[in-house]
Amino acid sequence: QVQLVESGGGSVQAGGSLRLTCAASRYTYRPYCKAWFRQAPGKEREWVASLYTSGLPTLYLTSVKGRFTIGEDYAKNTLYLQMNSLKPEDSARYFCAAGGRDACTYDYWGQGTQVTVSS
Fold it and tell me: What's the helix, strand, coil split of the chain in %, to 5?
């Protein structure tokens, strides 16, 4: 069973930066897509960013475009989310997800890491 474990969350002031990391145990197949989602208290889970092993371009939620960067460290088998210029509205629990063989489905999820941005 593939396990995803997030780390790197914390509390920062507005304008600060955080780098979230998602460590994956050995995949049984190469996932079609990997992504970050977030969920704030009382709100629905929200997609933040995706990358694709098929070569499709990375995609970002409009409100984070230009501030967040999704990427992979292949040597460490980790997914990351570099978050700059953080805003209070970015406060949420952030989850990584991965999966799919021929299409993007999120078969695997981590437990999440908390990000709190104060004004």
Answer: 5, 50, 45
The DSSP symbol for 56 reads P
Q: What's residue 75's pLDDT?
A: 84
CB contact at 8 A, 65 and 103: no
Helices and strands (DSSP H and E) totals, the chain:
0, 11
Does position 100 have pLDDT exceeding 90, yes or no?
no
Structure tokens at 90: 């970015």
Contacts with 42 (C-beta within 8 Å, 6 or more apart), sequence order: none
Retrieve residue 112's tokens: 């999440």
Quote the CA–CA distance of 34 and 4 in Å, as a whole number: 11
Asked if residue 86 lies in contact with residue 16, where contact means CB atoms within 8 angstroms, the answer is yes
Count of other CB atoms within 10 angstroms of residue 57: 8
The rounded distance, in Å, linking the Cα atoms of 107 and 99 is 5
